[in-house]
Design brief:
heterodimer, A: 115 residues, 6-stranded mixed sheet, B: mainly beta, 4-stranded antiparallel sheet, 10 strands, 0% helix, 46% strand
Chain lengths: 115, 115
């Protein structure tokens, strides 16, 4: 059974810092990995999608990397801003067997960026 | 529509009543997922539809929960004889087929409160 773990569970940083959020998964047979952002009381917003054949994806101040063989992904946020405060979730899309296509989420990292 | 649409956005019901939650996926998206998110918790997989294949119902917590999907369009999640522990936000997501990008897009959710 696929398990996804995110570290740290919570992070508080001053504005302007660069930061790294970590995601690990136990079964490397994945189709892709997606990072999401969730604001309080809202749905999830897709940030970056990395296919299993890719190593990284970038969008603005965000960069996500994927090391499928070691079961790890990182989300790098450059020059953090108070508006980045949210819960960040990673999810893996399974590629094999009876779980093909199923998306498994981590518990999320709660990020607070203070002015 | 432009995004995944869910209704109702909020539902308050009495214990023992049945509820129906609706999800309109993005047009052309063949995959559709339902997740449950209890207050302060992570996302819990419920059910996954992929085109005309048999749905993956492995996440449904009990036989009081069921879901249907009409072709590659609307899906309805039904909870019979609701219990207080069913109180949660129910999130729907859709994506193109996995052999396309497979990027998942979420609706804003339906918040269910069982009194």
């Amino acid at each position: 059974k696929q398990e996804v773990t995110q570290i740290p569970a919570a992070l508080s940083v001053p504005e302007g810092e660069n930061l790294v959020l970590n995601c690990s998964f136990t079964d490397s047979a994945i189709y892709n990995l997606q990072w999401f952002r969730q604001d309080p009381g809202k749905g999830l917003t897709s940030l970056l999608l990395i296919q299993s054949s890719q190593r990284e994806q970038t969008s603005g101040r965000l960069n996500a990397s994927l090391d499928k063989s070691s079961g790890r992904s990182t989300l790098y946020i450059a020059a953090s801003q108070p508006g980045d405060s949210a819960t960040y979730l990673c999810a893996v899309r399974e590629a094999g067997g009876t779980s093909y296509g199923k998306l498994t989420f981590g518990q999320g990292t709660i990020l607070t960026v203070h002015p | 529509g432009a995004g995944v649409s869910q209704s109702p956005s909020n539902k308050v019901t009495e214990k023992g009543k049945d509820v129906e939650l609706r999800c309109d996926p993005i047009s052309g998206h063949t995959a559709l997922y339902w997740y449950r998110q209890r207050l302060g918790q992570g996302l819990e997989f419920l059910i996954y539809f992929q085109g005309n294949s048999a749905p993956d119902k492995s996440g449904l917590p009990s036989d009081r929960f069921s879901a249907e999907r009409t072709g590659e369009s609307v899906s309805t999640l039904t909870i019979q004889r609701t219990q207080q522990e069913d109180s949660a936000v129910y999130l729907c997501a859709s994506s193109l087929a996995l052999w396309n990008t497979g990027e998942l897009f979420f609706g804003e959710g339906s918040r269910l409160t069982v009194l």
